[in-house]
Amino acid sequence: MKKAPVLMVFGQSNAHASGVFLEQNERIVSPMKHVLALHGPENQRWSPAPVVWRGYTSDGTNLGETQDHTACLPTEYARLWEAEAEKRDLPELYVIRISVGAQGVTEGYMWHPDYPKRLSPGPHGKADIALFPFSLDVIRRAFGDLRSRGLEPTVLGLHWLGTEEETGVPVEKLDVLPDLHRNLIRAWREAAGCRVPVILYRIRSVERSAAQGEDPRCIETINASFETAAETSEDVAVADPRDCPDYDPSVPFTNGIYSDGNHLGANTHRWLAGYWLKRDLAALGLK
User: How far apart are CA 135 and CA 165, in angstroms?
Assistant: First the structure.
């Protein structure tokens, strides 16, 4: 079977670079030829509705909340893949994006497994989606579609830019995080039916968190849960936005990597896209 590389980016606002908008000339408005995505609203449906792949654009490709033309990791990765595919023979890349801002994984938030089964798309503040079961449903249908066409889904990475909302949850309620993260990862992998490398992003917005009066132990607990997942599960890695060359702790609040102290800046997303593309192509034997 021919390999079909798949990139998945799930989470909350940093997964879609909330508020970090592309310049007019940077927007991807013409569908890409070598990168395909699931656009809404035709894919914001439950099974048994079939998935529909279309050329990637920087608008309409997040199956979570509606916020278009941002300099997010999946868009910058798609841009680099398309450019590389124009120069040499690369397989088509398939991208799945699901994120809603301000939605964590603990009880009451949309990523929690017991969140009521709803699917009401829209912008931030209006989108109301049971993200965990919806993500499983999308993966099953998307991967089933690829296999039905004689393709072998090959997951480059499932990037989790989430659990950020838990920085404001009482720390005594965060002892559930290791189990929640483990259950999310296990279920995503079962839905995919193949190897799924997972990348969890450390939360480094310490100054912003302190300015909001949040308990500093919350960020420590979240990051510790990520480390536990990496130590106890195969193919789970922890990434650190501070590895970006622009990181500068002497720059107040943004540290050179955040746009507003909370959301990673365009430069950080672009660096991450380039970093992972290089590693992913090498893993595919396409150095």
Answer: 19
- The mean pLDDT of the chain is 97
Q: What is the 3-state secondary structure (H, E, C) of the chain?
A: CEEEEEEEEEECHHHCCCCCECCHHHCCCCCCCCEEEECCCCCCCCCCCCCCEEECCCCCCECCECCCCECCHHHHHHHHHHHHHHHCCCCCEEEEEEECCCCCCCCCCCCCCCCCCCEECECCCCCEECHHHHHHHHHHHHHHHHHHCCEEEEEEEEEEECCCHHHHCCHHHHHHHHHHHHHHHHHHHHHHCCCCCEEEECCCCHHHHHHCCCCHHHHHHHHHHHHHHHHHCCCEEEECHHHCCCCCCCCCCCCCCECCCCCECHHHHHHHHHHHHHHHHHHCCCC
Q: Is the pLDDT of residue 199 over 90?
A: yes
What gap in Å lies between CA 35 and CA 263, rounded to an integer?
25
> Which pLDDT band, with edges at 50, 70 and 90, does 227 fall under?
very high
Question: pLDDT band at 287, cuts 50/70/90?
Answer: confident
Residues 6+ apart with CB under 8 A from 175: none
* CATH code at position 102: 3.40.50.1110
Confirm whether pTM is higher than 0.90: yes
Domain residues for the domain of 25 are 2-283
Q: For the chain, how many structural domains are there in total?
A: 1
> Chain centroid to CA 234: how far?
19
